[in-house]
Amino acid sequence: MKTNNKAESIATDYLVRICEVAFSVRQKLSMKQKQKLWTKHSSSSSSALFLTAAAQNMLCIKLADSLGVKIKDPWITWFKGSCLPASVSLMLTPLIIYKIFPPETKHTPDAPILAQTKLDQMGPVKRDEWIMLGTMLVTVALWISGKE
Questions:
Q1: Strands, DSSP E only, in the chain?
Q2: Contact (Cβ atoms closer than 8 angstroms) between residue 47 and residue 57
Q3: pTM as predicted
Q4: pLDDT at position 1 over 50
Q5: Cα 69 to Cα 111: distance, rounded to the nearest angstrom
Q6: What is the pLDDT of residues 52-91, one digit of tens each?
Q7: Phi-psi region of 128 (alpha: psi -120 to 50; beta: other; left: phi over 0)
Q8: Cα separation, 111 vs 107, whole angstroms
Q9: Do 78 and 41 touch, CB atoms closer than 8 A?
Q10: CA angle 81-87-90, nearest 5°?
Q11: How far apart are CA 14 and CA 59, in angstroms?
């Protein structure tokens, strides 16, 4: 099996730089910045999982088509191929972020009481929120059931 040493070198350099940055800024990030970091990495994993989740996924299919590769069912084929790597990434990302940036507060016995207080302050679900929920569900249902 022939490998591309330049591509491997670039990938290795990229991973080394990510680790250097992560460990060098470990103490400098606020909790909000740490949450953004986790969100960014988890959204990348979920975008890789579904064909229609990111523009670059569709570009890959178009590139394969232009090279003469015919894919019978692109959505299912993409999902099958990306399921394992994306799932592993989704499971490992929180663990890695937790190890690199451990939380400052690990024990919160008052969290359920605080959450209930905030929910009581918000009150019941409002009319506009129900409309938004219904609109989103109809949109997703139309997206799933659409032909092309």
A1: none
A2: yes
A3: 0.50
A4: no
A5: 53
A6: 777 888 888 888 889 988 888 888 888 888 888 888 888 8
A7: alpha
A8: 9
A9: no
A10: 140
A11: 23
| Residue type (1 letter), 58 | M
CA distance 15 to 57: 22
Question: Is the pLDDT score of 48 beyond 50?
Answer: yes
Place of tokens 């960014």: 40
Cα–Cα distance, 81 to 96 (Å, whole number): 24
Residue type at 109 in one-letter notation? P
How does DSSP assign 42-70, residue by residue?
HHHHHHHHSGGGSHHHHHHHHHHHHTT--
DSSP, residue by residue, the chain: ----HHHHHHHHHHHHHHHHHHHHSTTT--HHHHHHHHHHHHHHHHHHHSGGGSHHHHHHHHHHHHTT---SSHHHHHHHHHHHHHHHHHHHHHHHHHHHS--S----TTHHHHHHHHHHHH-SPPHHHHHHHHHHHHHHHHHHH---
End-to-end Cα spacing for the chain = 38
Number of alpha helices (DSSP H) and beta strands (DSSP E) in the chain: 6, 0
